[in-house]
Amino acid sequence: MSNEITDGFVNDYKANIQLLLQQKESRLTKAVTTDSYKGEGGRPVEQIGAVAARRVTGRHEDTPIIETPHDARWVEPNDYDWGDLIDDPDKLRRIVDPESAYVQNGKNAMNRAKDDEIIAAMLSDVTKTGKAGGTTTSWATFAAANALHLIAAGGTGLTIDKLRAGMKALLAAEVDVENDPLFCAISAVQHDNLLTETQAISLDYNTRPVLVEGKISSFMGFNFIHSERLEKTGANRHVPMWAKSGMHLGTWNDLKVRVSERSDKRYSTQVYVCETIGATRLEEKKMVECLCAE
């Protein structure tokens, strides 16, 4: 056999592009209220506070005038974008055109940005309130004055007792848990914590299976959403529990994708993705912060 036969050897490259592991969809958008806006800010809701009825103690008394408290919540836009270039010479040297994969990768980044906006707004200390949004409402101040809404880590992860405490806080605040869906965002560590809780996985404590294909999707009235993007301080993860009506995502400019030639870049292909969104907490009493040790 000729020693030169190796000159005919070839490399076989498959025409596949694989995106590395990443969160692709927005997981929290389904767990908040949404609306679209124009301008520098939006007012998702005008709020009317509770009033107390006065007991009638005599005949022909004057009609009581009891002022109704009013407030409002505001959401402000934040711009996000991403772009990259694909040189024409690079296309010629590749078996597969990466353009569509770049577009999908950009979309994934925008979807994660939605979750980041929502997470940041959940425990924000700069929530805009008041008639014109000129007042700032702090979560830390509220939690300090309402102990039920801040569950200490206590050196433990997510436990049944912490879920009970979260439900207790929401019920005590008169959240309509029967008609207002409740959610709890958890990382993989908190999910693993629940798998060690007998009450969470045993049919002896549940009328229907809690584990579905190895995952706990709901328990004790909470719908669990997996997220690895939750804030962490030191060894403690900030796990939010909330009613859907207590959080809001506003959209000024929904996801836009542009694929075009750049004449100033030797006619390279530019992939560009952008969106303008903003999130806000609508009512503190519909939110619970649970610290979980990791």
Number of strands: 17
SSE sequence, one letter per element: EEEEHHEEHEHEHHEEEEEEEEE
- Rg is 26 Å
Task: Label the CATH architecture.
Answer: Alpha-Beta Complex
CATH superfamily grouping: phage-related protein like domain
CATH-defined fold name: phage-related protein like fold
Low-confidence stretches: 92-96
* Helical fraction: 10-25%
Distance, first to last CA: 63 Å
Could you provide a short overview of the structure?
21% of the residues lie in helices and 33% in strands. With 294 residues, it is α+β, with helices and mostly antiparallel strands. Residues 92-96 have low confidence and may be disordered.
Features:
flat; 7-stranded mixed sheet; 294 residues; 33% strand; phage-related protein like fold; 21% helix; 17 strands; alpha+beta; 4-stranded mixed sheet
Word description of this protein:
- This protein has helices spanning 88-92, 99-122, 139-145, 160-172, 188-195, 198-201; strands spanning 33-36, 42-48, 70-75, 78-86, 127-129, 135-137, 150-151, 182-186, 211-212, 215-216, 218-219, 222-226, 232-233, 236-243, 247-262, 268-281, 287-293.
- It has 294 residues and is α+β, with helices and mostly antiparallel strands.
- A hairpin with a 5-residue loop joins β5 and β6.
- The chain is flat and about 90 Å long.
- The termini are far apart.
- Residues 92-96 have low confidence and may be disordered.
